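Researcher: Next sequence.
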Amino acid sequence: MAVTRSWVESALGSDFPLENLPLGVFQRRPGVRCVGTAIGDRILDLRAAADAGLLKNEVAAACRQDILNALMAMGRDASRELRTRLTELLSDSAARKHVEPLLVRQADAEMLLPAKIGDYTDFYASIYHATNVGRLFRPENPLLPNYKWVPIGYHGRASSIVVSEAEIQRPNGQTKAADAVEPKFGPSRMLDYELEVGFFVGPGNALGEAIPLREAEEHIFGLCLLNDWSARDIQAWEYQPLGPFLAKNFATTISPWVVTMEALEPFRAEAFKRPEGDPAPLEYLSDERDRERGGFDITLEVWLRTAQMRSAGADAVRVSKGNLRDLYWTLAQMLTHHTSNGCDLEPGDLLASGTVSGATADSLGCLLEITQRGARPLVLPDGETRKFLEDGDEVILRGYCEREGQVRIGFGECKGTVVG
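Model: Next structure:
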């Protein structure tokens, strides 16, 4: 395979080579927000590129905004056009003299939320996660009857979505011990992370109009890493009969860079192969192309660094490694189901996969599964143990795509530190 090289020296071998070009929003000084693309350890300021005449027409106007919503609303043709132009600018040595002055060191920039997120929905699309969690509470019947028929989800809280590096305040809430007569109010003692992937809505749909499955991916702008922090003790007390509430709406962390669908194209995979005997999706959730190419081969990792490890100068340790291929429902199926009743999605809305877990013990996406709700504490290399997260713990999510014959691309990091 012929590989086009960028003249940005740090691009090769990084999460952000020329084949990636993820989009995000950054600032170098407070109040001056700019849309940018990551290339190696640099950011190309797209507002400056538009002002310099390097970008044209409606795409240039969208890149002058301080959030990505306008570009998301324009659809996949616009993101393809921008990607083609950025590839030219960052690979053509003749363009270097015009583009290089517009590069910003990532180390000198503060990353911000990439979009104004009007609504946030979190799904429950990993059958391994759903089965593992269900087995903790219903050993004889871990999966509820609807799971294999309908993509399960809940509406989250958009206002508490934060970008990577933000501290996570330990939440307070009602909890009730099994042997207690009544609940008590106080800080959660069973705080957990959830390894997920988020995907941003592009053009969206009008109220009352559903998006057919064959068109769903034209309404997905790109993907990011997502940590849906969860207070398991609060969740256990409040979730019946209506599901998650305060146990999950106190914070959700996303990575700052949105990897576009165009960048992910070489890493497509078959959708999850349903075991024999599982029901076929209903007609509105069934499409041959989605079955053949609706999955994505994205490796996902969780790393943990405790306060004690930081004090000792120790690096974070990898806790688990999974893959987005293990979702029972595809991203397109989730989006189509979301709109199937006429619910309108808008540019910049965020949907998430739910915890991504695999079939093996080293691919579990949260501590609830890893520690069996605290019954089997995780033992770290320095001898510390964890049932759930403690104050000072830093959780780092990483994601990347690699395949023979393709240049590896990454998502960067999604990190947050728990504070009391």
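Model: The longest strand covers residues 409-419. The radius of gyration is 21 Å.
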